[in-house]
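Bumping with the actual sequence this time:
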Amino acid sequence: MSASKDNYVVHTAVEIEGIRGAAKTVAGVREALCGSIRPGMSTGELDRLARDLFAEQGVASAFLNYRGFPGQICISINDEVVHGIGDDTRIIRMGDLVKVDVGVKKNNFIGDTAKTVCVGPPTGRVAELMKATEESLMAGIAAAVYGNTVYDIGRAIEGHIKPTGFSVVRDFVGHGCGVTLHEPPEVPNYPSPKAKEKLRPGMVLALEPMVNLGTPKVKIDAEDGWTVRTTDGSLSAHYEHMILITDGKPEILTWPKSA
């Protein structure tokens, strides 16, 4: 079994193979869902498509009923940062920025990943926001090497964002992942003094910067109790990869097949 400490988990070789399988599956579902998004589609329709893809793959949603969450996946549009719920009355329109966050449970292992899609070609600051957020994720991954700490990951992510004038959400963070959806440690997307955990081979982390066009401040929608929005109504982008810490470069477990 994995070696679990109060503030981190190191997975066994057998567990890592299972996690790799779940991560590969969730990456494929993510790409299929993102490729299906079109104007006029409801987020409820996208959620049902996720349900059908999970069934085809023989996996279950890792999000459905987690702490009461009612959706198969999280679908967040424009000023919605994360945790949006599929709804047949929520229609995707040209120009929308759609965040698709997907989690699966496969053979008792977890895959978790997210991607931002612009409906139509992104331009101006929207294109810059998407590019900077994805690049910040890659900067965080590059810093996730044996001998560094979780603090170094957050420093790399926010260090990439600060010069752009965008802001990193601080109220929601990345996390350990693999056997359960949320494992220690928390992985802030900024250099938190509390993030002192040393990175060790066998740790699996879900890095997921959430970056806003305006203020970093967010609020939870009072109507559904889940959807996180920017307080100033500005756009937000979100990307997530699961990575395995090794004794060399980190392994990106949720990389698309075509890459």
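The tokens above came from a reply further down the thread. The helical segments are 13-36, 43-57, 124-142, 150-161.
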